Amino acid sequence: MSLFGAMRTPRNLVFGAGQRGALPGYAARLGRRALVVTDARLSEDADFRRLMDGLKAAGVEFSIFDGTIAELPLECIAKGVETGKAFGVDLVIGIGGGSCLDAAKVAALLLAHPGKASDYYGEFKVPGPVLPLILLPTTSGTGSEVTPVAVITDPDRAIKVGIASPHLICHTAICDPELTYSCPPVLTAVSGADALTHAIEAYTTIRRQPTASIVHEHVFLGKNALSDAYALMAISHISASLKRACENGNDREARERLMLGATAAGLAFGTAGTAAAHAVQYPVGAMTHTAHGAGVAVMMPYVMEFNRSYCELELAEIGQAMGLELADKSISERADATIDAVATIFASIGIPKTIADLGIVVAQLPQVAEQAMSSARLIKNNPRPLDLTTMAILVNAAFTGDRARLRANAGARKIN
Ligand SMILES: NC(=O)c1ccc[n+]([C@@H]2O[C@H](COP(=O)([O-])OP(=O)(O)OC[C@H]3O[C@@H](n4cnc5c(N)ncnc54)[C@H](O)[C@@H]3O)[C@@H](O)[C@H]2O)c1
Ligand SMILES: [Fe+2]
């Protein structure tokens, strides 16, 4: 297949300790009246207040909406949009974890277009540009500051839903690792595990024939030469820093590398997409009320094993990016070592081993498999084609912890 690359990125992306200080300058170039979307934890923070003082000094008026709730239930977004409408905003700034950034994205959408969030569920439903958006993450995890998707909890839906559109990519992303120093170890672990999963899924996702219409047919295009570079960069930084940042939150180098890796992972999956590990997490998270990052990380080694005959070379290359000692090993042995190493990193930061450990009971397994299959944008991106039967095999293995059995069930090899 010929070389193909595509990237969808913010207009500006700046990374580095202290770069949050660039916010007022960027904001003043984009608008005069900003809706600042955050949560109650951050709005009380002295550093956040200093950032707001900077906005004021730059001549940007603002109204703060700090009602974002983790995992983003629909009703909290509506209140944020009301705040923005009442203030007459021309700019949205999101500061916080993935939930705040996604809330800001949906607010920017609903302040520019009529209707409600559910009108835009799915891919390519957003009809045009949203309000200019500036996003500042405070976790090293979701990559939402660079991605074209917002993930919402809708009480009318059994599992979380996504609005996926290139129009949701922010104008300016400011990634300042100093904003993550306050993350406690468990948050560092689950959000960092999410980021590593983004990079691995982006690097192993399907590779589509690059027709001239591919960029208009899929928000998430599948793996390509550009997303691959960011995925490998992310894997290298995150695998070297995740455990260190969990063990010592003041480890400056680890915090920096983890955030750089998480943003790079966002760039990779924001174009390439994620796949089965994310598809299974949606029902598992809804049934067990466990964190997104914990669920995708539990699934990742099983999904790698399940997909291995379709992406063995990629798995070997992931191991190389992780810095594993792979000389003299065959491709298959390298893939084995990579899957083991990913499982070891996750175990070392306290990620459970099975979905049973997350609280799934045996009677829920058919429902988990069925609902996982309903995430069309994720299922179509998995390198190994999925149907309900094979999804059930994957989900059962992640329940019993039997990775070896998945190997026996690895399916026919893909022929390129
Ligand atoms: N849009 C995307 O591309 C994308 C990708 C993956 C996940 N997500 C979504 O992002 C959400 C998860 O985001 P998250 O993992 O960043 O967590 P989060 O935003 O849900 O926050 C979890 C908790 O951590 C707190 N927190 C955030 N930053 C902190 C800090 N620096 N110090 C102390 N506490 C802090 C928050 O106040 C909150 O209580 C989920 O809703 C998930 O579905 C979105
Ligand atoms: Fe994720």
Note the topology.
Blueprint: E1 12-15, H1 23-30, E2 33-37, H2 40-43, H3 46-57, E3 61-65, H4 74-87, E4 91-96, H5 98-110, E5 122-123, E6 133-137, E7 149-152, E8 161-164, E9 172-175, H6 185-204, H7 214-217, H8 225-247, H9 252-272, H10 276-288, H11 292-307, H12 312-321, H13 331-348, H14 365-372, H15 376-379, H16 388-400, H17 403-408
Parallel strand pairs: 1-9, 2-3, 2-4, 4-6, 5-8, 6-9
Antiparallel strand pairs: 7-8
The protein binds nicotinamide-adenine-dinucleotide and fe (ii) ion.
- Average pLDDT works out at 95
Helix content: 40-55%
Instruction: Note the run of SSEs as H and E.
Output: EHEHHEHEHEEEEEHHHHHHHHHHHH
Q: How much strand?
A: 5-15%
CATH superfamily of the largest domain: Dehydroquinate synthase-like - alpha domain
- The total domain count is 2
How many helices? The count is 17
Low-confidence stretches: none
Order of the strands making up the biggest sheet: 1-9-6-4-2-3
- Measured on Cα atoms, how large is the radius of gyration? 20 Å
CATH topology descriptor of the largest domain: Dehydroquinate synthase-like, alpha domain
